[in-house]
Amino acid sequence: MGKPIVAIVGRPNVGKSTLFNKLVGQRLAIVEDTPGVTRDRLYGNCEWQDHRFLLIDTGGIEPKADDVLLRHMRGQAQLAIDTADAILFVTDIRSGVTAQDQDIAAMLMRSGKPVFLVVNKVDGVGEPPMELYDFYSLGIGEPYPVSSVHGHGTGDLLEAVCACLPENEDGEDEDERIGVAVIGRPNVGKSTLTNALVGEKIAIVTNKPQTTRSRICAILNRGESQFVFVDTPGLHRARTRLGDYMVKVVTSSLSDVDCALLLVEPIPHVGGPEQALIDRIREEEIPCILCVNKIDTVEPAELLPVIAAYNEVWDGFDAIIPISAHKGGGLDDLMHELQKYAQEGPQLFPDGETTDQPERQVMGELLREKLLLCLDKEIPHGTAVEITKFSERDSGVVDVDATIYCEKASHKGIIIGKQGAMLKKISSLARADMEKFMGTKVYLQTWVKVKENWRDNLNYVRSMGYRDE
Questions:
Q1: Taken in order 104, 357, 342, 23, is the CA torsion positive or negative?
Q2: How far is Cα 364 from Cα 213, in angstroms, rounded to an integer?
Q3: Are 390 and 68 in contact (CB under 8 A)?
Q4: Chain centroid to CA 420: how far?
Q5: In this structure, are residues 147 and 153 in contact, taking their beta carbons and an 8 Å threshold?
Q6: Are 438 and 360 in contact (CB under 8 A)?
Q7: Which of 103, 264, 269, 442 could be 434's S-S partner, Cβ–Cβ 3.0 to 4.6 Å?
Q8: Chain segment 234-286, per-residue pLDDT in tens
Q9: Alpha-helical segments (H) within 147-226
Q10: Cβ proximity of 319 and 341 under 8 Å
Q11: pLDDT band at 34; cut points 50, 70, 90
């Protein structure tokens, strides 16, 4: 039996992620005073005295929400509840008992799992405030007053939780998981490889460099093993604030995985980006497989000088595997090699899930892909997409409103095109992919706005969703 699982649930903005970070002892969850920041489940190892368990942070539960994103968050929370051995139901003493709290309490009691009522934001010490007794009305039992910011009360909470958890024996997990960072210079084929390994389109792909801006997780289940591939932006010399963010994503991703795939072109020369990534891999001391991609474009004899060039720079690669991400050559050999890095433990994603991206984010990326495909030169790299509406009708049709931002007024005219022809073409192509992904009809509306030099404005970069966390 693997580690016991404890899920943190509650309505939005009651401090679930702050409590999660406090209990696991590091800042894994994004914390912001905005409802809905945590959209999916986040896992962390937690230890208390002689007990060890896996802690799950979830997005806020909106029991009666109709919005597609909120329903996705509610579904993720339900998955966590279904797999948990115990549940921490987090509430907020400052707002008191709400109707949402009552709905969630009723849902949790139906689960049949041990539920611990956590009343958060009790930041003072000494006698608990009188407002605490109002929470008995939820019917969960004794409330545990805590301060997730200061840690007050978390010891008593953990002691009670651990007393009800099943014993776990090390080394007897039935499942395995493997975290793999896919890294390399821009346009070397990282997203194509990620999509090929998973078997469906997870990351957008174009022939333009720097298509991928954020880390994207793609999930593949094979037998009892779950592979989590982290597709990263190409390492390049940053010239904007957005570029700084993309470079940081690449380097930080190597700290969270079991191994790295360094993807390179079949060129007998080690370039600056490759050398920098090799140095980072050696610094992190993680296993690395060198993948020579695009072997379908060269003769077999031309690969030997490429392998020799990389071996001369570093002889620490665990394996060197020639592949063609585009045509699938060598991928079976690669998967066989990756299996060696499996770690025992519960799978992080349920069967059938292929990405950690919220559907809203996927919609934005599909639209941005069409901008990259349809527009020339620098214009598409200066664009960003914000999904301002994402909802579903009773008929099943999904409504998507999207705003395309560009850096110059002249670019706006090019994106719209003569009598709106270019914007219509981009939107039509994006809508077709959105419908394929959602499995239903999509009604897409797009607008174009100018935010001058947004890529060099840190606040703008963060507002577009490109956050350091």
A1: negative
A2: 12
A3: yes
A4: 35
A5: yes
A6: no
A7: 442
A8: 554 545 444 454 445 555 566 667 888 999 999 999 988 888 889 888 888 88
A9: 154-164, 190-198
A10: no
A11: very low
Residue of 168, 122, 167, 113 whose CA lies nearest to 141 = 113
Q: Which of 6, 55, 2 is nearest to 168 (CA)?
A: 2
CA-nearest of 339, 340, 289 to 314 is 289
Per-residue pLDDT of 83-128, as tens digits, reads 788 999 999 999 999 998 998 888 888 888 899 999 999 987 778 7
How many residues comprise the chain?
469
DSSP assignment of 442-468 equals EEEEEEEEE-TTGGG-HHHHHHTT---
Q: What is the DSSP string of 347-381?
A: -SS-TT--BSS-HHHHHHHHHHHHHHHHS-TTGGG
Residues ≥6 apart with Cβ < 8 Å to 439: none
Which residues contact residue 54 at a Cβ distance below 8 angstroms, ignoring those fewer than 6 apart? 2, 3, 4, 5, 6, 43, 44, 45, 46, 345, 346
What is the token pair recorded at 48?
Answer: 């208390």
Cα 90 to Cα 9, 60, 349: the distances in Å are: 6, 10, 23
Which residues have C-beta within 8 Å of that of residue 413, sequence separation ≥ 6? none
pTM assigned to the model? 0.57
Identify the band that residue 446 occupies on the pLDDT scale cut at 50, 70 and 90. Answer: very high
Question: By three-state DSSP, how is residue 404 classified?
Answer: strand
248 to each of 229, 244, 310, 468, how far by Cα in Å?
A: 18, 6, 24, 8
